Prior knowledge:
By secondary structure, the protein is of the alpha/beta class. It is 41% helix and 15% strand. α2 (41-57) packs across α3 and α3 (64-100) packs across α4 (110-134).
Amino acid sequence: MIIPRFVIAGAIVLSVYGGANFYIARRLYQWLNLLSLNINAKVYTCIFVLLALSLFLGFSPLPLSIRSVFGAIGAYWIGIFMYLLIFTFLADFVVLLGGIVKLIPGPTPRSVLFLKGLFAVLLTIGVVSYGLFNAGRIKNVSYEIELNNAVLNDMRIVLISDSHLGAANHFERNLERVVKSINDLEPDIVCIAGDIFNDNFSSIRDPDRASDLFRSVSATYGVYACFGNHDGGRTLDQMMDFLNESNITLLNDEHVIIDGRLALFGRLDASPIGGSGELRRRDISEDIASAGAGIPVVVMDHNPSHIGEYGAGVGLILTGHTHKGQMFPGGLITNAMYAADYGYFRKDGGSPHVVTTSGISTWGPPMRVGTNNEIVTIILR
């Protein structure tokens, strides 16, 4: 019998995740016992198992209210888990190295074991607390792109992406502030480069208020969006209705001509979670060639892995998706995965300019470490 690759990959991931949780749980239990807290092993184990499983229970067939609770717990836990793992391993490595070079006697003294656990716990608390705080801040970033076309006349594009409405990031709380910041920039066009939603429209706490706020965005030529990989699934129709009610023009492999000066395209994401119904990403090279006759072409394409699809006929590509890794050391991974994982990129003089934003909010853990939420302003010349 041939076992599918995704089953093997899933088994490996679960084994690694389970082993890492066991390692953290054991080390943390040993440290708590050094504090003479008399922790009940069975109760401790049950709590830790629930924390570890919360990540998966958030996607289970449980009732939505219960699933949402586990989803929120899982989002926070995965961030805590990551830094507990890093700092616990680092502390163990330092103690092991100290033993090898005879700086720490063997067996390891109780005081060293206590300090080792304290190091891991305090650093985790510090980094996670900073990450939660930093996730509530928004940075303004700007670029000037020379397309050498006089008709543009310094057209101002404001770019956001990855709001993940309905996720544990509580973006809805920040939406009023985001809208005010966008309006203060006095944009000609606002572009939303995908992952507006977080898989399930029903997870949005107050969609009517969110829609009202989006309608209050002020842009000379309007607000446009493309879908990302999290904008799909069973509630796709509700997502599309929401955008329509919010005065956001959705471009699914479609384009609009902005004031006769710019052709703006929006791409349908190639791999939406849960699918996009009857919608399928298609080849738009002929559309680009015809629409771009005499005017610059700007393309919104959520995932920067697709920038190689576009040639000299495209002036600028706007992407998101990567979150710049969101939490260190995630940026090292995205930098290795994508040629344009963040900021400005251009392969050579004959290639399109690319701007990849780190996003306006977070996905998964509602934390930002080593990265920022951002609103991007692009001046086209």
